[in-house]
Amino acid sequence: MAAVPGSFALTSDPLLAGDAATLLNDGDFATVRQLIADYAGIKLTLQKRNMVYNRLLRRLRTRRVGNFGEYLELVQREGSDEREAFVNALTTNLTAFFREPHHFELLHEHAQRRAQERGAPLRCWSSACSTGEEAWSIAMVLREAGCAGEVLGTDIDTEVLATAQAAIYRMERTTSLPPERLRRHFLRGAGSNEGLVTVRSELRSLVRFGQLNLQSPVWPAQQRYDVIFCRNVVIYFDREFQKKLLARFADLLVPGGLLMVGHSESFPAAHPGFRSCGRTAYERT
Ligand SMILES: C[S@@+](CC[C@H](N)C(=O)[O-])C[C@H]1O[C@@H](n2cnc3c(N)ncnc32)[C@H](O)[C@@H]1O
């Protein structure tokens, strides 16, 4: 199409030309909110409309689908291979090594006590582990405390889990770690891996990752846990789901076990089976 001087040529791609209001209509947005609540328990607020538009637009392009209505039909089709990508696109995965460091100080004390008592290996679960930094931070603390243990990292999002499993990070992500910790637990990449770090095999042997939707009725845990991290994820869930989750964590923690939640999540405070034992940290009574 020839452009008229002084004006803008219309693109032939309607997705490039539109905006959230015109392309992701009210009905489509309502369907997105319903589907992500059904699949992952995530309650998207009305303010998330632009975020939804931007994130799903990439999926429309990848799948070469012309509009949101068609895309959402694809997601809902029986046995759809797009459902996983839809969920991955709508999760928020912000994380960091030793995020909210007070939890790791508490964990260190707990692990040291267990090591001194020569007790059983400390079983830890990072239940919304995103790209793995939380699980690796737990493993670093176990090693530093001289405590035997194992760490399970799970998340609903298969894309972030692939990063967690690969355990390769850009060096910038580790700048908050003291040099001693970095040397002890990581290897620096060289040549084509310049600028990257990976965790050492001693740490790898403590951690395994797997996909788990916290909403699913069956969790694969065979034994109880000593420590559960469930941080910065229940803010996306409604009260009913939070309550159910808490009851399940209470069943799954040993007496004296620890539950760590995110900085704006005080939901265990109301449960009779937990008592506060630090900032956003709770002990199973
Ligand atoms: C903001 S990140 C928090 C990561 C880490 N816990 C932290 O605090 O740094 C939230 C994570 O929860 C995961 N998530 C969301 N809904 C979930 C569900 N129903 N089951 C399991 N994980 C879920 C997301 O995929 C995302 O990786």
Tell me, briefly, the overall form: globular
- Would you count the extended β strands for me? 10
Strand order of the largest sheet: 6-2-1-7-8-10-9
Q: What profile does the largest beta sheet have? A: 7 strands, mixed
- What level of helicity do the residues show? 40-55%
The CATH level-2 architecture of the largest domain is identified as 3-Layer(aba) Sandwich
Mean pLDDT: 92
Rg over alpha carbons: 22 Å
Q: Assign the structural class, choosing from mainly alpha, mainly beta, alpha/beta, alpha+beta, or little secondary structure.
A: alpha/beta
At the fold tier of CATH, the topology name of the largest domain is Rossmann fold
Strand coverage percent: 15-25%
Please characterize this protein's 3D structure.
Helices cover 40% and strands 17% of the residues. The protein folds into two domains: 14-90, Orthogonal Bundle (Chemotaxis Receptor Methyltransferase Cher, domain 1), CATH 1.10.155.10; 102-284, Rossmann fold. It has a seven-stranded mixed beta sheet. Strands 3-5-4 form a three-stranded antiparallel beta sheet. It has 285 residues and is of the alpha/beta class. The chain has helices at residues 14-17, 20-23, 26-40, 49-62, 68-76, 83-90, 102-116, 133-144, 158-166, 179-185, 201-204, 239-252; strands spanning 122-126, 149-155, 168-170, 186-188, 196-199, 207-211, 225-230, 253-261, 274-276, 281-284. The radius of gyration is 22 Å and the shape is globular. Strand 7 (225-230), helix 12 and strand 8 (253-261) form a beta-alpha-beta unit. Residues 40-42, 91-95, 99, 128, 130, 134, 155-157, 160, 213-215, 231-233, 236, 262 line the site of S-adenosylmethionine.
